[in-house]
Write a structure and sequence with these properties.
heterodimer; A: alpha+beta; Phosphorylase Kinase, domain 1; Transferase(Phosphotransferase), domain 1; 7-stranded mixed β-sheet; 3-stranded antiparallel β-sheet; elongated; B: alpha/beta; Rossmann fold; 5-stranded parallel β-sheet; globular
């Protein structure tokens, strides 16, 4: 049987990284994570040979909603090397969700996330970490904290008009995003799916600049295709990146946009009917070859991508058609511009 | 058996589940082939179980599988009866179930068709929206696209 660290040695480990931790504080040491509500701030959880010092519960906010506290996800520090970790505990949750008006049943799958962590290893486009079972057999995932902001926030915070953004910044963003799609292709090649592809599930690693997928535990009852839902998510992100945000019919209407009268029902996103997919109607400088890709995610599409390979092939075709740096905007050095991304942000870091 | 022989034989693979669409497909087969001799029908059901951690414990998973097997048994027997009532020889009918063993259910179906040497695949079309078909895939559409060396009946 494994020996648990005692109070004194645990306190010494904590004080190595948190010198102000009081000498007289009794530390709660856990090795059973079944009841994740019992794991609190300043507690220690021991998993295998390593001890982790728990800080706050993680939070997640989306679409302007208040951050929701996730009690089964703990922010923590590895007491061995002082590194920041995210510790995800087992939470058996089953729920119905809506995508557009389509309802489907979802559940959290620690096993799936554990498999993908192992498969991804140190792949540059994924979060890293490992899975370990606690003394009760719960599959706990210990994730390396990624310093950086979500792709969604990065794009929203760019203070440029669309045309300038599209010519100066989008090519480099697309370059990085293509690497992310290649990452998803890698999963699919191994018969795994991400399951929750969203613009805020890509974190831009502040150190390396790589775009990295996070959160693989979302799962749903599979029907015929286990990859289509991922492909739909990839298409939505592309639409968001090309449009520098969602292009919503309600906004166009409010702005009395001159292109509004040209928008047809077929131009909308295939599921989210208020989002415009045919962005060339709004931004005519978007090349046809890129817009054609977006149209495969529109209501008028008569053909949908069946694999990440097909999607990548079309994106490669687009890149070739506009040149290596992906822009036909003359007299601008895209690569140089893209090194100064940070200067254009408003400095928010919600992660 | 070579591929041409597959294409022309009188062995039908009817892909079914508990849905009304499957029942329609079976009824269509019974109306089209009932009373004719020489036809052989295999009902195929691909079990698509949820992943292990859809369930909170092992016993819940076992219970799901047990219930599902009872359900399969019920509808397969019912479909068999429909064909017998239309004049099919019970000896010309077979039932087959298999667990989903590939990422795509259609791949399982087509592999089974090949293994069983059926010249025709029959499937009912589910009443799903275009968006839903794109998000989760459609068995009937994919069979139409991917089936080779056989005839496909899609019953609306």
């Amino acid at each position: 049987m494994k020996t648990m660290p005692n109070q004194n040695s645990t306190r010494r480990m904590i004080q190595r990284w948190f010198p102000n931790f009081p000498n007289d504080r009794l530390v709660e040491i856990h090795s059973d994570t079944t009841d994740f509500f019992r794991l609190n701030y300043d507690d220690v959880v021991v998993l295998g040979e390593r001890a982790y010092f728990i800080r706050q519960n993680a939070k997640e906010g989306r679409f302007g909603l208040d951050d929701e506290e996730k009690f089964w996800v703990k922010r923590a520090f590895d007491l061995e090397d002082g590194s920041r970790k995210i510790i995800k505990l087992v939470f058996h949750e089953r729920f119905k969700t809506l995508i557009g008006d389509i309802e489907f049943e979802c559940f959290r799958s620690p096993r799936k996330e554990a498999r993908i962590l192992e498969l991804a290893g140190d792949h540059k486009n994924f979060m890293h970490g490992y899975a370990i079972t606690d003394e009760k057999g719960n599959i706990v995932r210990v994730l390396d904290f990624i310093y950086g902001k979500p792709l969604s926030i990065m794009v929203q915070d760019i203070r440029l008009d669309h045309e300038t953004y599209f010519h100066r910044m989008f090519p480099a963003i697309l370059e990085r995003y293509i690497e992310c799609i290649q990452g998803i292709r890698f999963l699919h090649e191994h018969e795994e799916n991400h399951g929750d592809i969203r613009r805020d599930h890509i974190i831009i690693d502040r150190e390396s600049g790589h775009y990295r997928w996070i959160d693989f535990d979302f799962n749903y009852r599979q029907r015929e295709s286990i990859f289509s839902y991922d492909l739909f998510g990839l298409g939505n992100i592309l639409m968001f990146l090309v449009g520098k945000g969602d292009v919503l019919l309600s906004n166009l209407s409010r702005e009395k946009h001159p292109a509004l009268h040209r928008i047809r029902a077929d131009d909308a996103n295939i599921v989210f009917r208020r989002r415009v997919a045919n962005l060339r109607k709004i931004y005519p400088y978007i090349p046809e070859s890129l817009n054609r890709i977006l149209l495969h995610f529109s209501k008028g599409a008569n053909w949908f991508y069946e694999s990440a390979d097909q999607f990548l092939e079309d994106l490669e075709g687009y890149r070739k058609s506009v040149g290596r740096n992906g822009s036909s905007f003359e007299g601008r050095d895209n690569e140089t511009e893209c090194e100064t991304f940070e200067d254009m942000f408003e400095g928010k870091d919600r992660r | 058996m070579n591929e041409t022989a597959h294409n022309n034989n009188k062995k039908f693979l009817v892909v079914v589940d508990a849905s009304e669409n499957s029942r329609r497909a079976v009824s269509h087969v019974s109306r089209m082939l009932g009373g004719l001799s020489g036809f052989y029908v295999i009902f195929l059901h691909v079990i698509n179980p949820p992943e292990e951690d859809y369930f909170s414990c092992r016993s819940e998973q076992e219970e799901w599988m047990q219930q599902h097997r009872i359900e399969i048994d019920r509808f397969l027997k019912g479909y068999r009866q429909i064909l017998i009532q239309e004049g099919f020889d019970p000896k010309a009918l077979a039932l087959k179930t298999t667990l989903r063993y590939r990422p795509s259910i259609v791949e399982c179906i087509l592999e089974e068709r090949n293994r069983l040497g059926c010249g025709t695949v029959v499937v009912g079309r589910h009443d799903v929206s275009r968006s839903e078909e794109i998000l989760f895939g459609s068995i009937s559409s994919k069979i139409v696209s991917n089936a080779k060396h056989c005839t496909v009946w899609v019953v609306e």
